[in-house]
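Example pasted here:
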Amino acid sequence: MKGILFAILGGACITLQGIANTQISEDMGTWQAAAITQTTGFVIALIIMLLVRERNFGAIKKVNPLYITGGLMGAIIIFSEVTAIQKIGVTLTISTLLIAQLSLTYLIDINGWFGVMKRKITIPQLLGIAMMILGVIILK
């Protein structure tokens, strides 16, 4: 249950962040919005890390360099989401983002990419993704 609650919180924050970034983008520019968001996130994470006192920077040597590109992906995510919201609106953007996420996670799960355990996807799960795609088509 805790995982579901955190997923709901994360999903809500992604939506609110997209709207906030779009407003910042309209005033300053899209890349400026990405920079502000990434910087704010870094500062907050740093403060929390200092308060919690989890300082295990030595372990960074164990991290695959590919995964350290998360910040780069974050900047691309922000730019893409802001641009999409400006072009097609919040509802269609978030719906399409969710389908893209589910489709990629489907491929990752069935192929075991990035070191995740291979999982079989069931017909009902595929039907769920198909229904979401149909929903986006109807929304559009």
